[in-house]
Design a protein that fits this description.
The protein is mainly alpha-helical. The protein has a single domain, classed as Up-down Bundle (A middle domain of Talin 1), CATH 1.20.1420.30. Helices cover 75% and strands 3% of the residues. It has 10 helices and 4 strands. The protein has a two-stranded antiparallel sheet. A two-stranded antiparallel ribbon has the order 2-3. The longest helix is centred in the middle third of the chain and has 33 residues, at 158-190.
């Protein structure tokens, strides 16, 4: 409901469909995870926060792309396959650098993501979104897609869109509280680490929401699929973690470095796959390979 209402208002304001996909849909589908992460950060469940953010980025790339590719080819344009993915990799490298070079560690030997790092993450997110906005105004086409905009955008009346947004926000808050409380109960009862619960349970749950929106994407808008994932991952890494670190310092477990390396390798692999061939497409064979990597990553989470 939240995404429907926000997208309807954006279409009424005549925002480009590509910008809606990259911002409104990416933000809306990340809102359940955002509330959960913020609640976890407020209560001091740091491994749950980091596991959810980094794990979601990996599951978005391996899971959503591979499963969607079983039903239709995944297309992208040259800008998405270069600037978009490289920007996402840069955000992951920025996270790695900030986390491992904490500017204000409270305890010696402990790595923190504190307010200085949070401001840098949020600043990078603002810079990236500003670039997309002004590029759209200058060139009349956002670089995330090359598809023509629909002639007659569909939207609800304004009051109904506002109701959808408000109801969606209330549901997100209530759902976030229930999710965090129950995950911590599971962690204590069965001895599961917060890191595993964040990287597996919450990551899959967040990716399922995005997968739903990807699967209902119209055929003539299929080039938005990769841009949605790029936007969501950058929102998670830069925006979501930045806001969480503003609430209170996030203790960074150095073992998450391995997952950042995996995210970088997967991003580079997908960019290479897109450029293999003439149409910048992930076909069925490529998506099957990504699905095998997804299963391997899940096994890695279980045995670690």
């Amino acid at each position: 409901m939240l995404v429907d209402g926000a997208a309807s208002i954006a279409r009424r304001a005549r925002l480009p469909e590509s910008m809606i996909s990259f911002t409104v849909v990416a933000l809306g589908t990340s809102m359940p995870k955002l509330f959960t992460v913020l609640l976890a950060a407020y209560n001091g469940y740091h491994d749950l926060v980091m596991g959810t953010i980094i794990g979601s980025a990996i599951f978005n790339l391996l899971g959503i792309l591979s499963i969607t590719g079983f039903y239709r080819p995944i297309r992208a344009n040259k800008n998405t396959a270069t600037t978009g993915i490289l920007s996402m990799m840069a955000s992951a490298l920025l996270l790695w650098w900030l986390a491992n070079r904490s500017f204000s560690s409270v305890n010696v030997g402990t790595l923190y993501i504190t307010q200085p790092e949070a401001y840098l993450l949020l600043g990078a997110f603002v810079v990236f979104m500003t670039y997309g906005y002004f590029n759209n105004r200058k060139n009349r086409v956002i670089w995330f897609t090359e598809e023509a905009e629909p002639a007659v955008p569909e939207y609800y009346v304004t009051w109904f869109s506002v109701v959808l947004i408000l109801v969606g926000i209330v549901g997100l808050i209530a759902g976030g509280v229930l999710v965090v409380d129950n995950l911590i109960d599971i962690s204590r009862k069965y001895g599961m680490s917060q890191r595993f619960l964040g990287q597996f349970i919450l990551s899959i749950g967040g990716s399922v929401v995005m997968l739903y929106w990807i699967m209902i994407t119209k055929t003539n808008q299929s080039k938005f699929e990769v841009s949605k994932l790029v936007g969501t991952n950058m929102l998670n890494i830069l925006g979501m973690l930045g806001v969480a670190a503003l609430i209170q310092p996030i203790v960074y477990n150095p073992s998450f470095n391995i997952d950042i390396y995996i995210l970088l390798a997967v991003s580079l692999l997908i960019m290479g796959m897109l450029w293999m061939g003439r149409k910048l497409t992930l076909n069925l064979h490529k998506c099957r390979f990504l699905f095998v990597l997804l299963l391997a990553y899940m096994v890695y989470l279980f045995i670690r």
